[in-house]
C-alpha cells in the first residue's frame, strides 16, 4: 500500500512543502486534502522560486498528477492566479485535477472573515483573512457552493443568488459593512467556471485507481496539528483537520489504504496568529530565529513568533497522527547557538499545588498558564548547510536529532539543512 501522508506536527509552517517536493519526485500523485489558500509553501528548484497557496507541490513534476481533494476549500481567483503564474513560467498544469466535491471560497466569505475578526477585537483569532472559516462554516451548514456547481451555470446562478442575498444581509445588517455586488460575483464565477471546468474530476476514484495500479500517492497536509479544529489550541485554530486521519476524509480513501505518516517538525517552534505558546522566546534569541530562519509567513507576510522545540507538542503529534517517520527541518538555523533548549514537560501551578504534564494538557486553561521545563544541550558552531550525510553532522547536532527521535519514539528519516532542493540529509 504505497500511500503516505505528510503532516505538520506544530502550528504549521514546518517546511512541509520542501519535504513533499522531495517525496513527490518518487510519487505518481500528490493530493491536498484540507485547508485552502491560508497555507503557503515555497519551493526552490532549478527554475527558481515558486510560491503556492492552493496548488499541490507536485505540480512542478510532469510525471505527477496534482490533486486538490474534496476536503479543500478553493478560492477560484487564487487558483486561477497560480495557474497564470505557472503558464507564464512555462510550467504545464495539464496534470491538475480538482475535486467536484470541494467547496468554493466566495468573496463574501473573505469579507465575513475580516468583519468577524474586527468584531472580536482583542479576542481575535488572527486568521489569514482568506475566508477559510466562513467557507467551512457554510459547508457544515449545507449552504456551501461546490466546485461541481461550476459545471452547471444555471444552478450556479441560482445558488449564488440565494447565498449572496443572505450573506449581504449578514454583512450589512449585523457587521455594518458593505456586501458584495451580486452581478459582479456571478460574472466572475462564470469566468472561473470556464477556466477550471477542464480540471474538475472524481478525485476519490482517481486516487483509488492509482493505488490499485500500485502507484505512490502522497497526501499533502497543510497547517499543523495544533491548528486542528478538534485537537488544536481551540479557538486559535483553523477550521479544518490538518491531522493524518483527515487525509482519508478529504481525499476520499479508506484508512486501510494509508501505510506511512511522515510528521514534519521544525528544529524549533514557530506560530503565527494569537494563542498560547509555552516555549515562546522574545528578545534577541527570538530575533535570531526570525532573522536566520526568515520566519515571515508565506501567505500573509506576518512575522512568526519563535521558540524552542517542544517535545510535549511533538509527542501529541505522534499520538494524533500515528507518525511512522519524522522530517526535521531548518536544523541549520540552530547553528551558531552556544546552547539549545528543548521543552520536555510543563509545570502548572494549580492553586498552589504543582502539577507536571508530560502529555499535552487536556484543558486549554492549563496550556495557557503552564511553564515549560527546559533541558539544555550543547550547540554547534559549524555551518551545516553543505552536509548531505548524517555522519557528517557535528556530534552535537546528531545528539539533538537522537534526543528528538528517542523522546518521540519515531525515527528521523529526513533532515533539512537549507532552503535549496538538495539541502537535505536522507537518513
Ligand atoms: P485561518 O485558517 O485563516 O482561519 O486562520 C486560523 C489560524 O490558523 C490563525 O492563527 C492562522 O495564523 C493559522 N494558520 C492558518 N493557516 C496557516 C498556515 O499555513 N501556517 C501557519 N498558521 C496558519
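^ C-alpha cells above, recovered residues below v
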Amino acid at each position: 500500500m504505497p500511500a503516505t501522508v505528510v503532516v505538520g506536527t506544530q502550528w504549521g509552517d514546518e517546511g512541509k512543502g520542501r519535504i513533499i517536493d522531495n517525496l513527490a519526485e518518487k510519487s505518481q500523485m500528490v493530493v491536498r486534502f484540507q485547508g485552502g489558500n491560508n497555507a503557503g509553501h515555497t519551493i526552490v528548484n532549478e527554475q527558481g522560486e515558486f510560491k503556492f497557496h492552493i496548488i499541490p507541490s507536485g505540480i512542478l513534476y510532469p510525471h505527477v498528477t496534482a490533486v486538490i481533494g474534496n476536503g479543500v476549500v478553493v478560492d477560484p481567483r487564487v487558483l486561477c492566479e497560480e495557474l497564470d503564474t505557472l503558464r507564464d513560467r512555462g510550467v504545464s498544469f495539464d496534470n491538475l485535477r480538482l475535486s467536484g466535491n470541494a467547496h468554493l471560497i466566495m468573496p463574501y466569505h473573505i469579507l465575513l472573515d475580516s468583519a468577524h475578526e474586527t468584531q472580536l477585537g482583542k479576542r481575535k483569532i488572527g486568521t489569514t483573512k482568506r475566508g477559510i472559516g466562513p467557507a467551512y462554516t457554510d459547508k457544515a451548514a449545507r449552504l456551501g457552493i461546490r466546485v461541481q456547481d461550476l459545471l452547471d451555470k444555471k444552478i450556479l446562478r441560482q445558488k449564488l443568488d440565494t447565498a449572496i442575498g443572505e450573506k449581504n444581509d449578514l454583512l450589512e445588517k449585523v457587521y455594518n459593512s458593505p456586501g458584495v455586488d451580486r452581478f459582479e460575483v456571478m460574472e466572475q464565477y462564470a469566468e472561473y467556471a470556464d477556466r477550471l471546468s477542464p480540471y474538475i474530476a472524481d478525485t476519490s476514484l482517481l486516487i483509488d485507481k492509482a493505488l490499485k495500479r500500485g502507484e505512490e500517492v502522497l497526501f499533502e497536509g497543510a497547517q499543523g496539528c495544533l491548528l486542528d479544529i478538534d485537537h488544536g489550541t481551540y479557538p486559535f485554530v483553523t477550521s479544518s483537520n490538518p491531522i493524518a486521519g483527515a487525509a482519508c476524509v478529504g481525499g476520499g480513501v479508506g484508512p486501510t489504504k494509508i501505510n506511512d505518516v511522515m510528521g514534519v517538525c521544525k528544529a524549533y517552534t514557530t506560530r503565527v496568529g494569537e494563542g498560547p505558546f509555552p516555549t515562546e522566546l522574545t528578545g534577541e534569541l527570538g530575533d535570531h530565529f526570525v532573522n536566520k530562519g526568515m520566519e515571515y509567513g508565506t501567505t500573509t507576510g506576518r512575522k512568526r513568533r519563535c521558540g524552542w522545540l517542544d517535545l510535549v507538542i511533538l509527542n501529541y503529534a505522534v499520538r494524533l497522527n500515528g507518525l511512522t517517520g519524522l522530517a526535521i527541518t531548518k536544523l541549520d538555523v540552530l547553528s551558531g547557538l552556544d546552547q539549545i533548549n528543548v521543552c520536555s514537560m510543563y509545570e502548572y501551578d494549580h492553586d498552589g499545588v504543582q502539577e507536571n504534564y508530560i502529555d499535552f494538557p487536556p484543558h486549554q486553561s492549563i496550556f495557557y498558564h503552564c511553564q515549560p521545563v527546559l533541558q539544555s544541550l550543547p550547540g554547534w558552531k559549524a555551518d551545516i548547510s553543505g552536509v548531505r550525510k548524517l555522519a557528517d553532522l557535528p556530534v552535537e547536532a546528531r545528539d539533538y536529532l537522537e534526543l528528538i527521535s528517542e523522546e518521540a519514539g519515531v525515527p528521523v528519516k529526513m533532515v533539512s539543512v537549507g532552503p535549496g532542493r538538495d539541502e537535505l540529509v536522507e537518513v
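Residues 3-100+199-262 form a domain with the Adenylosuccinate Synthetase; Chain A, domain 1 fold (CATH 3.40.440.10).
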